[in-house]
Amino acid sequence: MPRFLKEHRKGLVLTGLMFAQLLILSFQIPLGQEASVFERTAFTLLSPVQNGVRAILRGIGGVWNRYVHLRGVEDKNREYLDDILRLRQENAVLREGLGKLENREEAAAFLRQLEKAFILADVVGVDAVSPHKSIVINRGSRHGLRNQMPVVDAQGRLVGRIIAPIGPAEATVQLITDHLSSVGVRGVEHPISGVLNGEPSSGDCRMAYVPASDESLVEGERLVTNGLDRVFPPDLPVGTIVSIRTDGSLFKNIVVRPAFNFREPAVVAVLTGSAGDGG
Amino acid sequence: MRNGLYGGASILAAYLVFSLFRPLSGPLDLVVDVFAVAVLLFGTLRGEIPGAVFGAVCGLVVDAFSLGVFGLAGLSLTAGGFLAGYVSRKINIQVFFRTLLFFLVLSAGTFAAWAGLVALVGRSPLPWSGGLVLLRPAVTAIAATLIHDGIRRIKARHDR
């Protein structure tokens, strides 16, 4: 080995490593929002570990909840039985109504479509840098998940959308609180539309492009998706306006608190029926 | 070879802790940086070159599990791992408070480098959460010092 290399081995290794990472950074410029090969590989290889750890934790929790801590189970059972009864009734009424509106074959096809309209998934991980940017779920391309599919929580409140990297059994969800997320929204009481952008630094969102002259939106107003972005279906609950300010610019400064709870969504639903079809 | 095995095992251990800890920790997840702890410790225990390589790989793993520019965390952790190995060979870090100060300076430097890169290259806001994120270097330093001290004590007992 030449003397120079021997003497400066450590510095050269560090320089080489830094240079390799700068190369990775520069490769992303033509890629834009797409995930690089290394990013996809690292995600595909490591996300099953995260999934496994969550499964073990859930198993331990399950043993506790199912076999040891049984307080309130009877009440919950009764509650669920009431819910099932009510939902069955609702289902029967809706099926009957549908049968009247369409011919039988069309109605059956519509119902079959509905059954495949969403995929349930468990949240197995949170963004490594900021919890308000993304989450990882235990469903992936193998289950039919694709880019841009909307994701909602158990109450049907908008959580985000599927984004690359998507592994065979795990996928990344960009939360609506990520600064690169944009959602078309409107008020429930006053149908003024705007664009909702995330603010990962605070976990809140901002509603942009509402003219400063508009006086209809008020604090406490609930917002839903308007469907104009052709990614999220209309009328999904998004959040509540917590403050409105006018600071001399053309548009209002509106802060929105997301409807979903960051610590709550253990289970989410991916709306597979609405990807790319504009809801 | 030995460094490679240690490195692989350490990455897996750090990743397991990250997976275990992350969804449970609530607001604390901004404060604890498992990978920074692993990189600083690995650099200190194994030397500057293994530290830098370990930092590079850990950084890429962090970036694979975060939205944003891929490779940003790698740059700061590579430098952090290298410096941990380099400086720990030049000074005595066998005293608890000196070790704490050593890790505090390094973790603050790594954090500042990462925050600067995120703001400059990533053009994204830092996850401030009311300033909670600023506690990250201190928590990283305390965690690294406690583990380092534990390893030192185990080694000393083993040598006896």
Describe this structure in words.
The complex is a heterodimer of chains A (279) and B (160). Chain A is α+β, with helices and mostly antiparallel strands and 279 residues long. Chain A has a domain at 119-279: Rod shape-determining protein MreC, domain 1 (Thrombin, subunit H), CATH 2.40.10.340. Chain A has five helices and twelve strands. A six-stranded antiparallel β-barrel of chain A has the order 1-2-5-4-3-12. The longest helix of chain A is centred in the N-terminal third of the chain and has 32 residues, at 37-68. Chain A is globular and about 85 Å long. Chain B has a single domain, classed as Arp2/3 complex 21 kDa subunit ARPC3, CATH 1.10.1760. The longest helix of chain B is centred in the last third of the chain and has 27 residues, at 96-122. Chain B has six helices and no strands. Chain B has helices at 2-21, 34-46, 48-64, 72-88, 96-122, 136-159. Chain B has 160 residues and is an all-alpha fold. The chains are: A alpha+beta (279), B mainly alpha (160). At the A-B interface, helix 2, helix 3 and strand 1 of A face helix 1, helix 3 and helix 4 of B.
